[in-house]
Amino acid sequence: MKVSVIIPVYNEFRTFQEVLERVRQAPLPEGCTKEIIVIDDGSTDGTAEILGKHALAGTISAHHSARNAGKGNAIRIGIGRASGDIVIIQDGDLEYDPNDYARVLEPIVKGEADVVYGSRFLGNPIGMATKHLLANRVLTGAANMLYGARLTDEATAYKAFRMPVLRAMKLECRRFEFCPEVTAKVRRLGYLIREVPISYNARRIADGKKIRMRDGVQALWTLLKWRVAPRRKFVQ
Fold it and tell me: What are the two backbone dihedrals, phi and then psi, of residue 151, each rounded to the nearest 5 degrees?
């Protein structure tokens, strides 16, 4: 099975080189191969130049957006370019550890699940700010109440899908609402979401973290919106 690792990145010059090396070295379940797809979302800090060098070397597939359009938009571009049987999302910073890939992907490879989320709260999240912890609790609670999701970490970045699951839905996300939108549509389509524990090392705004309170409000609205939207609005 081929695993497509999609990395949306925006102004991550300080960390991206190390992230990319970790992704390249990350072990996968037995029998899996890996393709790395990096979507540069209009970076202005030198990230694009790093991508260009790796793309020329043939180690990654890279796409450069002329302007910053948002993480969700970058993920949608990445999904469109992916050729794998399984897709997993990787942030361009060091909060998440690619050594957890095998754990996240194993249930899909074994045919036990179609969608797997890596839960920070089943593991040992380090350094998460109280406001982000509370926001995660609210969003997870909303997803569970609205969709019967039975999750501990709706907003985790480590989400893995069998490709047909993603191909079955229309995604509209632009910024950080990819997580609530895909959670809502996965559940509306009747898929169960398996969770596995992962490690997590939080960074703060001073370190380049980009998500803000308004994104939490947008995420909550997204969960509510797709609860009542007709299925024809999001089924391919």
Answer: -100, 160
pTM here?
0.93
CATH number of the domain where residue 171 is located: 3.90.550.10
Total structural domains in the chain? 1
- 32 vs 25: CA distance, rounded Å: 13
Distance in angstroms (rounded) separating the CA atoms of residues 70 and 232: 25
**Inter-CA distances, 221 with 11, 29, 95, 187, Å:** 27, 36, 26, 16
CA distance 116 to 103: 10
Which amino acid, one-letter code, is at 217? V
Phi, psi of 70 (to 5 degrees): 115, 155
The boundaries of the domain holding residue 29 are 2-233
Strands (E), 140-205: 159-162, 194-197, 200-201
Structure tokens at 99: 């050594």
Q: What is the pLDDT of residue 187?
A: 98
- Output the CA angle 92-31-56, nearest 5 degrees: 45
Distances in Å between the alpha carbon of 170 and those of 178, 189, 234? 11, 12, 5
pLDDT at 91: 93
